[in-house]
Design goal:
18 helices, alpha+beta, 28% strand
Length: 628
């Protein structure tokens, strides 16, 4: 009698699931958290990992210290374990929690690590985790493909170096990983001298060969650990990592300059070729790619202007430091040059100064001195207006050798100095009136004013003054003024400059200074929130898109789009979470709301409050979620 043919399955059963798991190379595992024993199913799928075929005792120890996880992913594993053992309340209705992770497992043949995607379900009894069921899926091919695509997208096809976007990303990632207190590096901007003439004379194919040769020279001149890229045309960038001495940097750059200094000849044509290099140091000249590139570009501009075929290290030239090039001016002549540049074109000077320093504070402070020296004033000052206190307080001032400070720090106590400063402010305020130069307070001879102001006039030695209100929109935010110890007839040029600088202060310099201060405060807040264990994030009120997530979330979540609203990105919902307290905030005042709700796969206590956080002008709110 013939044996019956194998039956065709008509429904899902264990055999079908095992076959599909093997097809997809999915490894299943069960972790008994009470005995710390991990059991594996579908052994064929697990044979590529350095894992036991069936059972792993003392699983937590083996995972932590057994070298099964790539060392760069151990920190993520620690975070995973910490969240795994967070208990729920005994009377909570939550009995399971989802925990995903992406990390690298050691391969069985010992030749490296394999990227895997892990999905787990944790089950609780009386508020404590007791069992974990999970799957391990091999995503090594996907990761390799993604990396290959990234490399192709970031590669310059002519030279084989990084392209503009790839260089920016690589440098930014590296700078994010180092410390300005411990590490030093240099960003070099390398540009060909005379390349256009070579390209026009010998043709584009010859020009491409020159660029390829230039790329090879740069590749061979610097270390393998340095980042090298071509960002367009004949312009290259190098990040010189682990800088121990600027002497070493100069030696490497000078060797490259010598190597690429040559003459090209063809059909009777002869053209010289060389390179110029501008360099900026981390952290001295900047701590991010944009700051370093801007300063290296400024140094390159100077190298070109000083005869090309040389290296110039960035210097804050408008702040009066002595340049490295041999034909530099002495400090006094350089200061004279500054003053002439300011007198010839005040606006250009100020904007150039702001561009080079990237500091509104430094720009304001130096500009006050320029005004004082140009017009022989004894005091030039910027006062801030406090709307709540309805008073002006000095923020910046420049003093001649005869000038008397109005800064609050000059008053050792709230005695006569404090009272006289207020009296002087009242004197200036009493004379404000609208003019073609703005709202201005002018007195050409203070001896003609009311005698009640005489104590302040004598104390601060004010013979004449001209002050102009600084406005931003419809708000008054301060005033800017010139003062002399003797009577002075202010000229039209002086009043025009007074008004012009007030406009710059109100619309560019003081708002930027406030933004910088707010960003610094945000940085301190980020550091604080990153060290907290709760799930903490900050969202844009209008879009509910997170503008910040703390380290607990960053190290736990799998990859997702940063442009998704929080309810989609974190909880995979199409609408805001039910009972979310953030939705109930009005955005006014010091609101604080707390709500128990289901999120992150469990019951959480969620708190929300309004927060001052600089983000595109939109109000934002802080959300804190902690499993109950």
């Amino acid at each position: 009698m013939d044996k019956p043919n194998n039956q065709v399955p008509r429904a899902f059963d264990r055999e079908i699931f095992a076959a599909l798991g093997e097809l997809e190379r999915i490894l299943y595992f069960h972790w008994d958290l009470t005995t710390d024993v991990m059991e594996f199913d579908n052994p064929r799928a697990g044979r590529i990992y350095a894992l036991p075929d069936k059972v792993m005792h003392n699983a937590s120890s083996a995972l932590w210290v057994g070298g099964l996880i790539h060392r760069d992913d151990v920190r993520l594993l620690h975070r995973f374990m910490k969240i795994l053992y967070q208990p729920t309340r005994e009377n909570s209705s939550v009995h399971k929690r989802r925990l995903p992770a992406k990390l690298r497992l050691r391969s069985r043949n010992g030749d490296g690590y394999i990227w895997v995607n892990i999905h787990t379900l944790v089950y609780f009894e009386k508020g404590r985790p007791t069992a974990l069921f999970g799957t391990v899926r091999n995503i090594q091919a996907q990761k390799k493909w993604e990396r290959k695509m990234e490399q192709q997208a970031e590669c310059d096809h002519l030279t084989g170096l990084l392209n503009k976007e790839g260089m920016k990303n690589s440098v930014s990632n590296y700078l994010d990983s180092i410390s300005p207190k411990l590490d030093r590096c240099a960003l070099l901007l390398i540009d060909a001298d005379g390349f256009k003439d070579i390209n026009d004379t010998f043709g584009h194919l010859f020009g491409d060969a020159v660029l390829t040769d230039m790329g090879l020279a740069i590749e061979g001149n610097f270390r393998d650990s340095d980042l090298k890229g071509r960002i367009g045309g004949d312009e290259f960038v190098v990040l010189f990592r682990n800088l121990r001495s600027t002497d070493v940097l100069e030696d490497r750059c000078e060797a490259l300059i010598r190597n690429l200094s040559r003459t090209y000849e063809d059909n009777g044509h002869s053209l010289n070729f060389s390179i110029s290099i501008g360099a900026a140091l981390y952290p001295d000249h900047g701590t991010n790619y944009t700051e370093l590139f801007r300063r290296a570009d400024r140094a390159l501009y100077e190298a070109k202007g000083n005869g090309k075929n040389q290296l110039v290290l960035y210097r804050p030239s408008l702040l009066g430091s002595v340049p490295l090039v041999k034909n530099s001016r002495d400090p006094q002549s350089f200061e004279d040059f500054q003053q002439k540049a300011f007198k010839d074109n005040m606006l250009e000077f100020i904007f150039r100064l702001l561009y080079e320093t990237n500091s509104p504070r430094a720009t304001i402070e130096l500009t006050l001195g320029m005004f004082g020296k140009q017009f022989n004033f004894d005091r030039v000052a910027v006062d801030r207006y406090d709307k709540k206190a309805n008073q002006y307080t000095n923020a910046y001032e420049w003093l001649s050798p005869r000038g008397i400070s109005m800064h609050p720090a000059r008053d050792n106590d709230r005695g006569s100095g404090f009272e006289l400063r207020n009296l002087k402010n009242q004197m200036v305020l009493s004379l404000y009136h609208p003019m073609s130069y703005g709202v201005v307070s002018i007195c050409r001879n203070t001896s003609l004013l009311d005698v009640k102001y005489q104590p302040a006039i004598d104390y601060f030695r004010v013979g004449a003054f001209a002050h102009c209100l600084i406005t931003h929109g419809f708000d008054t935010i301060g005033c800017f003024g010139f003062e002399c110890q003797d009577a002075h007839d202010f000229t039209q040029e002086e009043l025009n400059d007074l008004h012009t600088f007030c406009v710059l202060l109100g619309n560019i310099l003081l708002p930027q200074e406030s933004d910088t201060r707010t960003r610094e405060e945000n940085e301190h807040l980020r550091d604080l929130l990153d060290h907290m264990q709760e799930m903490i994030y900050i969202v844009d009120r209008e879009t509910m898109v997170p503008v910040y997530v703390n380290q607990t979330i960053r190290q736990t979540l799998s990859d997702s789009s940063s442009e998704e609203p929080c309810y989609m990105r974190f909880h995979h919902l199409d609408a805001p979470c039910k009972d979310c307290p953030a939705q109930k905030l009005t955005g006014a005042g010091y609101e604080y709301l707390e709500q128990e709700m289901h999120s992150w796969g469990c019951l959480t206590y969620t708190r929300a409050c309004n927060l001052t956080w600089k983000h595109d002008g939109h109000p934002v709110m802080l959300v804190i979620q902690k499993p109950s």
